Amino acid sequence: MTLIKYPTSRHIAGIDEIFKTFLNDFTKEPTVWRPAINVVEKNESIQVTYALPGFTKEEIRITVEKGVLTVKAEHPESTKEEGLNYLMHEISDSTSVRKLELPENINDETIEAEFKNGMLMLTLVKKEEALAKEIPINIK
Q1: Predicted TM-score of the model (pTM)
Q2: What topology does CATH give the domain 30-76+94-129?
């Protein structure tokens, strides 16, 4: 008896693609992803930079609640036009959410934000008591 190897991987990949397409038609929720960030501590502040390419300033919301900083960016409208026959549609509605627990030494009333070229830069100012102080030494 001769055994013939059946190429199952090609068929399984095809079935997998059918299920993905089928399920995507029923899930119309936007994709949620976490943006990349850089966090740098300076003497008087902490700088947090978020990569939010493709978003506008109006699509970004920054909130602080119970010591948690939340940055949410969301496209309000669909990128898919009605009446077109899409062969592939990978550019979709997307939402970006990132939450950071703030250290106790941050004054959450003085957070500054700047958005430029898809980069959101936040300056988290430290409380006065948290700043490094120089103590002079008196020589007698």
Answers
A1: 0.65
A2: Immunoglobulin-like (2.60.40)
